[in-house]
Amino acid sequence: MRTLQHAISFKKYHGTGNDFLIIDAAEPVPDRGALAGKYCDRETGIDSPDGGRRGADGVLFLGLEDRFTPPRIVMTLVQPDGSVAAMCGNGARCTAAWGHDQIGADEFMIDTQAGTRHAQIEDETITIEMGEPAFDPSRVPLSTEYNGPLIEDDVEGLTVTAVNTGVPHAVAFVADVDDVDLTAVAPAVRHADVFPRGANVTLASPIDSDDPTAGFRQRTFERGVEGETRSCGTGAVAVVAAAKRTGRIETADPVTVTPPGGTLEIVVPDRGPATLAGPVAHEFDGELSVVVPGE
Prior knowledge:
Helix content is about 15%, strand content about 40%. The protein is of the alpha+beta class. The chain folds into two domains: about 5-130 and about 280-295, Diaminopimelate Epimerase, Chain A, domain 1 (Roll); about 135-270, Diaminopimelate Epimerase, Chain A, domain 1, CATH 3.10.310.10. This is Diaminopimelate epimerase.
């Protein structure tokens, strides 16, 4: 069977620096993992027309179903290593922004592999419902040696708390996130035996050591990207959830979390789903070339 080159359209969005190529799920892409690996590469991937960063943190394949009220979007995130992530907070916020640009709606239900999430758009802020953070070892998940939650335990030399906020995170509170060589310490934790499906590794430090309610700075090494990203929404929620679980904060009010790419507002109530809020930007549109079977 011969093959043909086929051009497909994409849009590029980012949420506080967490950037994604967005492709309509109806487009013919025989190998989504290969496409993500090729075009997300930071050295050789898709180039920005305005001199911005090359590549992306993942590809969002989106299917809009506007016959529902509110409209629904089926979201599939394929990461640069070809894996599929069950949930991505900033990806879901970019999904809502894309949906708004398509049909003008300000509210969406977004279907992810971690469940259906409600998204609301108000002015420049997009808020996504993130589900309830889970510390239970079967839901993180942790290896069977853990009969209870992993709370501030040593994992490969880093003191971490394990929580699932749509995907698993190992959260470590440190004095200053910039004093840690994240790319050096994270891989061992990300692949540690205690995390049978791997884990994202998130560092957090207080914005003001004298005022815990001032929020946290954040850096995250993402599973599937296999490197540090400028922002991670599930990681920001994990920071606040872990801070509450370890007694660093008690508030159910919005908490500021600041990754390198911007500022996010997180609410982790005592009961019920957490929320993630922040801005989203549409960067540019373009076309990609994919190989499809011919006749």
